[in-house]
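Re: that chain you flagged

S.,

Sorry for the slow reply, it's been a week of failed gels. I finally had a moment to sit down with the sequence you sent. For the record, here it is as I used it:
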Amino acid sequence: EIAAQLPTPKAVLCVSAHWETPGVMVTSTDKPETIHDFYGFPRALFEVQYPAPGAPQIARAAVHAVQRAPIALDATRGLDHGAWSVLIAMYPNADIPVVQLSLDTRRPAAFHYALARELQPLREQGVLVLGSGNIVHNLRSIDFREPGGFDWARDFDAELVRRIQQRDHQALIDYDRLGPSAQLAIPTAEHYLPLLYCLALQREHERVSLF
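Prediction finished late last night. Pasting the structure tokens below so you have them in one place:
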């Protein structure tokens, strides 16, 4: 439903929680493979293929747009499940070119926000920048017997929604200062950081929609 409401993008640049690298990289292959980077799930998930084409020209555009840090081209990596598990619902025909931008998790949150702001020229070219992660991601604390989730998880989710709607980006960059719930919700940064890429690309006149 969300994809149907958006203009058809020229390409998708996905920032996924599941590609962490030393330094920043971007996929540049013409035909990215479907990566099944998980274990312990039903066989059907390992059989899923998402044969979207790559977009080397968009990868090169990202390299030229970003001055904050060098971006290396990766001509071998495909699409991880942080990308294809979302895109297969949005664009099931796999006819929109896709590239992925990696997370340099050696860097602080402010670096990712600032880097993302430099990707604005890609938006102007019709590229959809997609952040794929989780606001609350603490696998060690999961309890499937807790039907509504933990209070701290619901509270932190609501706090972030409020900050997003208020456009309080600085507080969201400094998420580790948002109290003890933040430490429980974000024990490691990789699932949170994609959100900052989306926030950084919000233009002055743009409102946030939640779904």
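What I noticed first: The mean pLDDT is 95.

Talk soon,
D.
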